[in-house]
Every structure is written in C-alpha cells, then in structure tokens.
Amino acid sequence: MRSGMSPSPAAPTASLPHASPAVLRRLEWRVRHAVNTSLTGDYRSSFRGRGMEFDQVVKYQWGDDLRDIDWNVTARLGEPYRKKFVEERELSLIFLFEDSPALQFGSSGRTRRDTLLEMAGLLMLLGSLNRDRVGVLYTSPVTSWFQKPLAGHKGVMRTASRLLGQEPPPIDAPSAVEPPWQFMRNIASKGSILLWFGAFTQAEQPAGWRAMQQRYQTVGVRADDAWDLSLPERTSFTAYDPLAGRLTSINTASSAERAAHARWRERRDAYFSDLFPQHDDRLVVRNTDDTLDALVGYFHRHSHHGIRA
After folding, report:
1. What pTM, to 2 d.p., does this model score?
2. Could you give the domains of the chain?
3. For a tag on the chain, would you pick the N or C end, based on fewer CB atoms within 10 A?
4. Helix runs in the chain, H state only
C-alpha cells in the first residue's frame, strides 16, 4: 500500500485467493463444538462493545468497567457513578491483520503467521455463530485490502476464506508495515471491536491510538514462538533476519547474545502492554498451543474477571 492511499475494497469473490474449504469446515466444526459447551456466554461478556446507546447513570458497583465512570456526576455527588448503555443485538468485529515478514518465523515448523491466521479464522466463525458482523483490514508491505463488516454465515465465510488464503508477503519485503490509522478510525461505528493481529515488535504508538481506544474496544492478538521466550541452549546457526533484511549469525552460548535477546523480549512486552494496558485486552497464543484451547481459556479468564460483564 502506498503512503496516503486507502486500502482497496474487496474485489469480486471469483478473483480472490481462498483458503481450502476443508480448512474452514474443520475450523467451523471446532467452533460449533466449543459454542455447544457454553463458550457463547463468555464470548458475549468479553465482546459486548462500547459506545452503545446511552440509557442512564447508575451507582458504580465493584467489577463494573472503570471506563464507564461518569466523572462529572461522580464529582457532583461525591460517590462513583457510571454510565449504563443498552447493548446492541449485533456487534461489528474488525480484524486488523498486520502481515509483516516477522510473522514468518517458527522454530517448531509452525510460524507465528500460521498461528494468527488460525486464531483469526476461529474468531470470525465464532462471530458468525453469534450473528455479529465481521470485517477485515489486511495490510502488508506490498498490498492491502478492506472488506467491510458483513453479517450472515456466507458473508463471514467468504471473508474468512479470503484472509486465510492470502499469500504472505515476500520474506525479503520491507519489514515496516504502517496500517492506515486514519482510514481505520472511519470504517466502523463507535462501539465496534477492533482485533489487531501482528508481530508487535517495538515501535512508536500509532498517532491517535488512545482516541481510537475510546471509539472501539481494542484487543491485541500476538503469537509467540518458543524462541521468543528463550533461546535454545548452546547452538550456533545462520538465519535470515526479515527485520534487518540480511543473514545473521547467532551463537546462543554467548552471554551477550542471550542478554540482548532478554532486552528485546522486555521491550516487546512493554510495547504490547503500553498499547493494551488492561491485561484482558491482550490475547497471546504460543505456536505450540492448541489455538482453540487458547481462545477458550482467554474467554473464560476474561469472563471470570468480570471487567465487562
């Protein structure tokens, strides 16, 4: 995507790459099974949207969302009050998939990209079963496209098929991906859910990010490889570094190498936490995890915390 240009809208379905129907059927079967074992309630309590129709001001109760506090009323009455909203029957889920070359790494054969695409597919199908609208903003160093939120099983399946069938950018493509944030602020109604899938390597916070978090409920989805957490013991190898754009030699027996890796991990985690300060707005799955189990665990933890219940 050239700088200053908006992503192209979705082209006719026949001209698009698609994921295998068998892949989508497998994901859908797993999602339906999870829904039948009471996942829907946890999903609804996690993704209820924000900025819905205002109803009234009520006393704040323990467990209510702090972001709903009406500070003017609280200051006037001397005790906390919050805004109460009427929940919409449907949500709009916007999937921002930031497809950088850094996602194309996997020490165990499964890459971060594979993990994130499967997680996105599961969440899209879960949204479809809950009759939500699902849209995608895909961006990479070489292309981008936008599919407006669609309701209905067929529409969501087409959108999921397009994303899961998207060819990855060349490994030697520029590492920087700059999502069109101005465009992002205008593609969905207030209260939509923005799910940002990416590598989340250290970078500057996007301009206007906090304002966007007031408009949307935002969730960051990150895939971690085993080597992201710790380097293997005492080995040397040469690998291509997509961020640097060159081959690099790594000696994991080097104390300096391991210290540099630890600093990188700390900076990466700090950046992710800065983008999504609330723990329940960060979904992290490992390449070795069962993706659906990780998703179910996330929703259960989120629901039991009661932050948005």
Report:
1. 0.76
2. 8-44+88-305 (3.40.50.410), 54-86 (no CATH)
3. C
4. 21-34, 40-46, 71-77, 112-129, 153-164, 181-184, 209-215, 226-229, 255-275, 291-305
